[in-house]
Amino acid sequence: MVKLQQDRAVRTRETIIRGAAEVFDQYGFNGASISRIMKRAGVSQGAMYFHFKSKEDLARAVMNAQPDTVIPRLDSRGLQRIVDMTFVWAWQIQQDVLLRAGVRLTNEQEGTSVRDASPYQEWARILEITLRQAQEEGEVVASADVRQFSEFLVSACTGMQMYANAVSGRRDLPERVVAMWRILLPGVAAGRIAESIDLNPRRFV
């Protein structure tokens, strides 16, 4: 009985987050309302406030769910995993409302009551862990500052998706990611590793 209740609570929370993502994606933080989110998610006020105390809490949950939409889709290692992470992200942001809403909320914090750098920092942390492993395995040049490079990648991808959104509605984002790696790989990949990296983003379509 307890297990059933716990499972139901988890499903309800996921339903609320998904509904909130749809509303945040469509209206932004300032245009979203708790009542609109409850209606989209199909939950009662009691269920909403059992899981989330405010719109700010909901926004943070959506923002911090971004890695969950990308990481489970990866099965590569080393430097290829980093490249693949950006490819999956480039495709998912076009079709997964949870990722798209998380990105929008993270980028549009100015003028809202949500001030949270943790989504950026979490992406940088994930990238740094994988890059450090790749460096230890000889795939990344020893002189590379992996922490600095990780933060640069987060910054570059953030700006790139904003530019792509303005230019093409993000349809050309995968190709822009390929161009980014063609510029970056020669400077960070050790030996002939760059030649072995698969830069075909359509593997993840």
Briefly, what is this?
This protein has 205 residues and is an all-alpha fold.
Protein model, in words:
- It is a single chain.
- With 205 residues, this protein is an all-alpha fold.
- It is 71% helix and 0% strand.
- Helix 1 (2-31) crosses helix 4 (55-63), helix 1 (2-31) crosses helix 6 (97-107) and helix 5 runs antiparallel to helix 7.
User: Helical percent range?
Assistant: over 70%
Number of strands: 0
Mean pLDDT reading = 94
- Low-confidence sequence ranges: none
Q: What proportion of the residues form beta strands (DSSP E)?
A: under 5%
CATH superfamily of the largest domain: Tetracycline Repressor, domain 2
Principal-axis shape equals elongated
DNA-binding region: 33-52
Keywords: DNA-binding, Transcription, Transcription regulation
Protein name: ScbR family autoregulator-binding transcription factor
InterPro entries: ArpA-like (IPR047923), CprB_TetR_C (IPR054126), DNA-bd_HTH_TetR-type_CS (IPR023772), Homeodomain-like_sf (IPR009057), HTH-type_TetR-like_transc_reg (IPR050109), HTH_TetR (IPR001647), Tet_transcr_reg_TetR-rel_C_sf (IPR036271)
